[in-house]
Specification:
This protein is of the alpha+beta class. It is built from twelve helices and 19 strands. The relative contact order is 0.14. It comes from Novosphingobium anseongense.
Length: about 450
């Protein structure tokens, strides 16, 4: 759950209700945990020795399920990104208990107070995780990044790597990172700008309690190290997608452009936050002007995220070019196999393609089944994320019953007018016959029920 942090467990009762409602599993079945212990003892035997290279990881300080490690070297004017990805397929075989359970889950499900792992911790946080302290099996993807930010997959190999350091976003220094890290990120960002990519990296919402005992929401923008680290994964995924598309195989991440209705609602939301969005400026262009350190603009970034039509997975189809509108490119997921089921199969496919081998039949078959399995998992995770954000919003207004708020009507439905409060990043519904979208109204909070995640407003003007 990257949309909300609750470091003091202030919302524990409400989160417990969400876990029960969405049947988030507390643990893995005993046979799955036993299979993980057996798999964790496997010794890598098909992996080249890359332990002489200075790989590092970069993640939140508390993370232990580390999918990626990296090192960078120069090749003339180009940069070579060696991106090591946890070799989950080395530990998990099709049809074994680990695999069967992973297909049921699809993803690791995150909540502010914990997570439900895709794979048991014996793998995801120990043997398969790219932690320091000994060689780990990985799939190393080497991507050539040109000065203009264009990328090309140079090679893929199974290798034993040894992370030299577990670096944290919160504390990392530039001199601890491989040379070329910031330059590589800048190249990728420049290429995104030229493509017209419209990615949004909204800030985290963090729940705190003020001196009066009221809940408050603090918006925390991404740290520079986080933004730069995301570029490494993006470069690799773009290069993998191109390689798979050329080979007429693969599983791709696709996303449509925001529809006209969503953009219209967002323009009204911008009005609520007193943001100047010129009529001639597209959503993609306006996004690039937003600053996560400015509360109103950060809140609008979160509104954009909630308004999106959503991404999905599609297998390769002859004559079709899969497209991800936010990336403005053909795109694939392969860099988080400890947390996403699909990535394990994409990695196996690109490993075969890059080495001139046929993609295994079981991988090709999985590409046909994965879109439905991942859609189910992502739908569940999306519902949980929305429920958690709703919980935080209701908690934020607890003890404020009777107070009035200014709001802008963003949409109309049978359930009432959809409103955006102008001074808080909160969306709600209110009965307001006769209003029109874009109209400013005043509402009074009648009740805020965190356990039901329900806000009850009435229109007063």
């Amino acid at each position: 759950m990257k949309a909300l942090r609750d470091p003091q467990n202030l919302l524990s009762e409400g989160l417990a209700a969400i876990r029960a409602q969405f049947r988030v599993p507390d643990d893995l079945p005993p046979q799955v945990r036993a299979a993980a212990e057996t798999a964790a003892a496997r010794t890598p035997s098909q992996h080249a020795d890359w332990t002489d290279r200075a790989f590092v990881t970069l993640d939140p300080a508390t993370s232990t399920d580390l999918d990626q490690a990296f090192t960078i070297e120069r090749a003339g004017e180009d940069l070579l990104l060696h991106y090591a990805i946890a070799d989950v397929a080395w530990f998990v075989a099709d049809g074994d208990p680990l695999d069967v359970e992973a297909w049921k889950r699809g993803t690791t499900t995150y909540l502010p107070d914990g997570k439900a792992n895709l794979y048991p911790p014996a793998l995801s946080e120990k043997a398969a995780s790219l932690l320091p302290g000994g060689p780990r099996p990985a799939v190393v993807l080497t991507t050539r990044v040109a000065p203009d930010g264009s990328v090309k997959l140079e090679g893929v190999v199974r290798a034993r790597i040894e992370s030299r350091a577990k670096l944290a976003y919160e504390t990392v220094r530039d001199d601890e990172l491989p040379a070329g890290f910031a330059e590589l990120a800048a190249r990728i960002a420049a290429a995104e700008e030229r493509r017209g990519a419209g990615r949004v990296d909204p800030p985290e919402q963090e729940v705190t309690r003020d001196a009066g005992g009221h809940f408050t929401l603090r918006l925390r923008p991404q740290l520079p190290a986080e933004e730069r680290n995301a570029a490494l994964s993006l470069a690799t995924n773009l290069a993998v997608a191109d390689a798979l598309l050329t080979a007429h195989t693969g599983l791709f991440r696709v996303m449509p452009e925001p529809d006209v209705g969503a953009e219209t609602r967002l323009r009204r939301t911008a009005l609520a936050f007193h943001l100047d969005w010129p009529e001639a400026l597209s959503l993609t262009e306006f996004e690039k002007t937003l600053r996560a350190a400015v509360p109103a603009e950060a809140a609008f970034m979160l509104a954009i995220r909630r308004a999106g039509r959503g991404a999905s997975y599609v297998p390769f189809r002859e004559g079709e070019t899969p497209w991800h509108a936010a990336m403005a490119a053909t795109y694939a997921h392969c860099t988080a196999p400890l947390r996403r089921l699909a990535d394990r199969y994409v990695l196996q496919a690109v490993l075969a393609v890059a080495n001139g081998q046929p993609v295994p039949e079981e991988v090709q078959a999985a590409f046909e089944r994965l879109p439905a399995a991942m859609a189910k998992a992502e739908s569940r995770d999306g519902q949980i994320e929305r429920a958690v954000i709703d919980l935080a919003e209701v908690a934020l207004l607890a003890n404020h019953e009777g107070e009035q708020f200014r709001a802008v009507v963003t949409d109309l439905a049978e359930s009432g007018a959809r409103i955006q409060l102008t001074d808080l990043p909160i969306v709600a519904r209110v009965a307001a016959p006769g209003v029109i979208p874009g109209e400013t109204i005043r509402v009074r909070l009648r009740a805020a029920d965190p356990l039901r995640r329900h806000l009850d407003f009435e229109r007063v003007a």
